Amino acid sequence: MRPTIPNSVLLGLMWTGTQDEDLSPEALRHECNMDDETHGPTWKDYDPRIGGTQYVQDTTNQLDITTHFVRLPYGNVGDWAVRVKGVPRRDAPANLESTMVVYASLEHNAKHGESELYCSTSDGKAVNCHGHSPGLDEFQLTVQDTTINLGSNADRSSLLHSVFATEDQAWNAKSIFLDAVQGKKDSSNDALRGKENVHFIVRSYKGAFEFDIEYTNSTSSRSHSSNLITSTIKTSHKHHQKRMADVFKFSQTYEGRQYQDFAQSMVSNLLAGIGFFHGDNIVDMSQAPEYDEQGLKFWQTAADARERAIPHGQAPASLLSMTSSRTSSPHGMLGDEGFHLLVLMDWDMDLALDIVRGWLNLMDEDGWIASDQILGAEARSTGPSDTVQYPHLASPPTIFMVVEAIVDVISAGGGASLGAYSASLENPMEANHIISELYYLLKRHYAWFRRTQHGGKGQYAREDAVGYRWRGRTPGQCAASGMDDHPRPEPPHPGELHVDAISWVASMAKSLKRIAQYLGDDIEVATFAKHETTLMEDLNTLHWSRINKAYCDATVADDQHKLICHKGYVSLIPFALGLLGTNHPHLPYILTMLQDERTLSSPHGIRSLSASSPLACSTKHCHYRGPVSLNTNYLLLLRLLELSLSPGPHAQKAAEIYVPLRHNLIKTVFTSWRETGTAWKHYDAESGEGLGSPGWTGWTALVVKIMCMPDLKREQNPPDWRVDEDVEER
């Protein structure tokens, strides 16, 4: 854990059941992994402003660990404590030996004494660390056993290892510790004496144990007793339960205790994934002409250009961001962040605003934001194999729908979204200032997206219609779209156009129009309304297949525009993003797709690809060729609910799809959570088994918002409204 201050203090916990001389990287637990031998970490409850309780089940070391993190009352606003409790598992010997390692390090090697950290022990048991750092001033860190009866642990003492590490390695506590205890790092080096900036507090135990880690600011008026920490833990748990009840009003079907525990776990683990990142992002600024991907086999020439390029680290930046998964993707991802924020803004609007502003402030002068914010050496150590970012690659601009949702909250007349009070939005002038600031940046990103993902105009017998395509396409992959392996036209072609790319552009125009309405800018309302209308005309002209009754990607064959149809999430994006009105002529066909078990309907949600497609599969390596994802299903449910509640020709059919789909999604995620203890990135459309990355409480936490949707029942027959003629296929 670290404060939201760059180059500051970093704290953490490691443990093992192995003695020092036998230590190996595998034996020492530190990283946040969810494998067959370690179940967790899982948060029972968590609020960044209050604290929470986390569980880890380590079957290899035969130890169950519970950590309680709490903000402490009566002292400085920054005071906190962590209680660590270890209990041998049922199959462990009663005198199980365990070694716990608490570490504290300074990420910045101070000059002129501006930062300092030193630790000592006077009685061989409690360890006190004192330090000061810019932004934190003076602070004290204490590690000591609690007052409970520790039995054979009563006389245990602490060992203290203090070593020096360079700034670029101070985060790498596990490697530094292994080197120190195995004699590879000489802490007695006279040149480094007094400069130690990484301190390891080692406690060995037999059987059960419990100890506290307490952080206090120098301005604290009192020390905090073990009893106070105990009472604060209890208060924190009660607070979280009350907040859940106040914020998320579940429909009657899902008011049971088991669903409340499930929802609390989903929200807590989503909130626990918020991280503060600081460092340089590695970017290829070569602007190679091959990156515009205009020639045949452009993916090969683009790959050659990447080989020639020399990426460089950019100026260090900071970002407070949510993460899709603490275990598999512990960094900020632009295309996912909007889905995370839809849940967070219900819980803590001010924190959501901080994160939105942080992301948009990373935008460069052209309007580009790196899709993956892999900031610094620590983030790169756990990031994807290729951490280089490219200024010609885009991501689904999901943050637009978040800012639009925030505007809707303000317009509704409250400084709160559900139960989340917002000090920032309560004041109309402050709210207007914030939205104006975000609007300016969103417009810049919109212009960048249209310019860089443009599909050409007047080419391949397309007359004046304008399409869009994701850059970065390779055979079998379209990673920038967020639906990497969803089938596309093959082989890739420079004249290719993507349904979801133009749909996201239209969605951005729609959001900007709504924000301009809130700000009272009638000229820009008219501008973006015209953009939206033109984009929708081009979407229908370029992508609607009269033969397949679906929106389809386009390619070029014999210099002619040709549609390639793979019914799935790509086909549904125009509907999912709310671009089709309640009487749109294509709605009957889209609703039929959603209801048809031979195509997209399944017992566990809407499939990412039609079951009848020869490219469909359901293994853990198939992401968007069959499995169910909560983010797209959530958007589909929103549209179905809107249709169900709107007078029109499709209300009854929309309700008939909405009711079982909502129930199946909740049941699928809940059942899997009960069996595995975690959320997953995708779910098998036939079995409901979790697929992909475990611990994916990013967009999967949207299930909590789905539980708050109404238990809709619609039996009456709607009026017989006329449906317009189909749009001709080109």
Helix-strand makeup class: alpha+beta
> Radius of gyration from the CA trace?
27 Å
Write down how many β-strands occur, each being a DSSP E stretch of 2 or more residues.
30
CATH H level, superfamily name of the domain at 9-223 and 233-247 = Glycosyl hydrolase family 63, N-terminal domain
Mean pLDDT: 88
CATH domain fold name of the domain at 9-223 and 233-247:
Beta-galactosidase, Chain A, domain 5
Strand order of the largest sheet: 2-3-4-5-12-9-8-7
Number of helices, counting only DSSP H or I runs of 4 residues or more: 17
Silhouette: globular
The major β-sheet equals:
8 strands, antiparallel
CATH architectural grouping of the domain at 9-223 and 233-247? Distorted Sandwich
- Regions with little confidence, pLDDT below 50 for 5+ residues: 415-419, 714-730
Report the helical percentage: 25-40%
CATH class group of the domain at 9-223 and 233-247: Mainly Beta
DSSP strand content: 15-25%
The span between the termini is 56 Å
Description:
Residues 1-188 form the Glycosyl hydrolase family 63 N-terminal domain. Residues 227-708 form the Glycosyl hydrolase family 63 C-terminal domain. It is a single-pass type II membrane protein. It holds the Pfam family Glyco_hydro_63. This protein has 17 helices and 30 strands. By secondary structure, it is an alpha+beta fold. The chain has a domain at 9-223 and 233-247: Glycosyl hydrolase family 63, N-terminal domain (Beta-galactosidase, Chain A, domain 5). The longest helix has 26 residues, at 651-676. It is globular. Mean pLDDT is 88; it is low at 415-419 and 714-730.
